[in-house]
Amino acid sequence: LLEAMTVLQGVTKLRRNVAITKRVNMGWRPPRSLFYEGKNLPTLEMGYPMLHTNYDILNRRSSGFRKYMPPNAPRPPVVRDADAYAPHGEDGKIPIAELLGKFRFMVPGYFVQNGELAEMEAFTTAIDLHLVGWMKVRKTFMSGHMQGDWTALSYFQRWLTEKHLSREAGTIRAVEIYEVNTGLMHPLVYTSLMTVKDNRKYGKRKNQLLKTLERAQISALESQTALERRRREEFTEEHCV
């Protein structure tokens, strides 16, 4: 029994010594020694790293922080006198087709099939007039930005204001034309005509639909409350002295 107790005490002491022994953590960096020479980083002069590269004429750099800016291209003269233009360039005047312009439009209304038919008709009209830009057609509005020659812009603006949209596509309630500008220069900002599609995910569409239904329900309840209040007031005036 005495020998067993002695062996047990020895094992316990051995375990205790193993537990308090410091172990080397390989996840830490080794401590710096006298042989540490520092990181190899290039020196900077005027913001440029001084690397050991061979000489080449392409390796030139400007002194200081100056950057080369090309000179501005001269702008072509734009004649803004209305008498200097003619429909087809008669009497040596400038053809009106060379006068470029732009405008933006907002058309509230109701367009069936989420505006697909109205989008097709408006896009066909604009592409036939060789206009560039973009348009966005939804169920309750139509908006866009058009650029091109002024004759084509006038025709498209007239197509909107006179409401040439077919009844199958929907109805136009009003037309707002703004940011009208003439005298643009080549090249135009847009090079083609495109339509902005509804690429929202199902979750966002569902949330938007729920918000629309909530607003419609709230407006219906408010109108019903106003009618009920009016009915009670009329009843009170008729039957109360």
From TrEMBL:
Organism: Noctiluca scintillans (Sea sparkle)
Protein name: Acylphosphatase-like domain-containing protein
